[in-house]
Design goal:
Elements: E1 6-10, H1 28-39, E2 44-48, H2 67-74, H3 76-83, E3 98-101, H4 107-110, H5 115-126, E4 131-134, E5 156-157, H6 162-167, H7 178-184, E6 188-189, E7 200-203, E8 206-209, H8 215-228
Parallel strand pairs: 1-2, 1-3, 3-4, 4-8, 5-6
Antiparallel strand pairs: 7-8
Helix pairs in contact: 1-8
Amino acid sequence: MSKRRAILVVVSSHDRMGDSDKPTGYWLGEVTHFHDPLAKRGFEIEVVSPKGGKPPIDPKSISRRDKVSAAFQADPALARKLEETLTPADVDPSAYEAIYYAGGHGAMWDLADNGELVAIAAQMHDEGRPVTAVCHGSAGLLNIPSASGNLIAGRRATGFANLEERLIRLTKVVPFLLEDELRARGAEFSKARVPFVPHVVADAGIVTGQNPQSARGVGEALAELLAGGA
């Protein structure tokens, strides 16, 4: 019997843009497009959120034209993973080969300072398992400790860039600018020359993607990384 190979996916439980009435949450495609190349290589996912249960989905991330997300949602077993997420207390870090932080603006409010998730990611990193993120999910990497002090200090990393935040007119809404905070933690921030094109960075077991368009690339890069360690 083959060993179960699973990735832990983290999504936000936060459902509003700051003090506004604008809905937010996790970005569906950043889960489904990440999952697709990994599923084709035999990996499963489990999903955790700060509050557990059914997390809020950003309504703007739902598109009938997205066939990958439609197929994911049409599969009852996969759809259930986003209907019944784990709480951090439910998670055994040793059961997963990597951790992945999906984005959506909700991540900016509840992932960086969640101590339980930070501890899970820190343990996995210490044990040599990849820590990955895409877009605003990179907020989850800001406060993860390591032997050198901070997980991303001195590492090449990316996330939703300042220019991208300005172009969608949310710089005054988010609690901080992700690019600025990654730089402040010592990351060597990397971004594409133009906004909203795929950009993936891998550095010593840390794989990050810049924007929603990068989710598949992060999944592919992680699959290659895990294949090398199989």
